[in-house]
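User: tokens in, sequence out, please.
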């Protein structure tokens, strides 16, 4: 009869406490979160917008009124959704470029990988700021 392996004889897989938390982990999680978030929020807003269009002018005015003031400028909710989705888009693009570069076999050295991960977050913030400043100037 074969004996059962004891619990101590089994190989242990690394746990999150074994690894040191780094920016490369954060960027990987942010890439997934921003992709899922944009897909979910974008789909819900798109369906709501289509339903508002189909509902007529009063329905569309209620939809637009959630995000804009009576003068047509964005209100706080409009800015939160607009800036949030823009930041998510630029973060997803920047980390996607990072993943594309890493798929070629480059940037796996620890220091370069950390610097690249930090630069994706900085690029997302800078691009979002530039985009909203451009919208404000126009």
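Assistant: Sequence out:
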């Amino acid at each position: 009869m074969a004996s059962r392996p004891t619990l101590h004889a089994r190989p242990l897989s690394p746990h999150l406490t074994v690894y040191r938390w780094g920016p490369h982990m954060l960027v990987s999680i942010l890439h997934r979160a921003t992709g899922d978030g944009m897909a979910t929020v974008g789909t819900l807003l798109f369906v709501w917008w289509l339903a508002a269009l189909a509902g007529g002018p009063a329905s569309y005015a209620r939809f637009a009124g959630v995000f804009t003031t009576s003068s047509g400028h964005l209100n706080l909710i409009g800015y939160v959704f607009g800036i949030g989705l823009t930041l998510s888009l630029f973060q997803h693009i920047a980390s996607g470029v990072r993943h594309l570069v890493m798929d070629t076999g480059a940037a796996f050295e620890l220091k370069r990988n950390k610097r690249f991960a930090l630069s994706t977050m900085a690029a997302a913030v800078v691009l979002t700021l530039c985009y909203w400043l451009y919208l404000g100037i126009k």
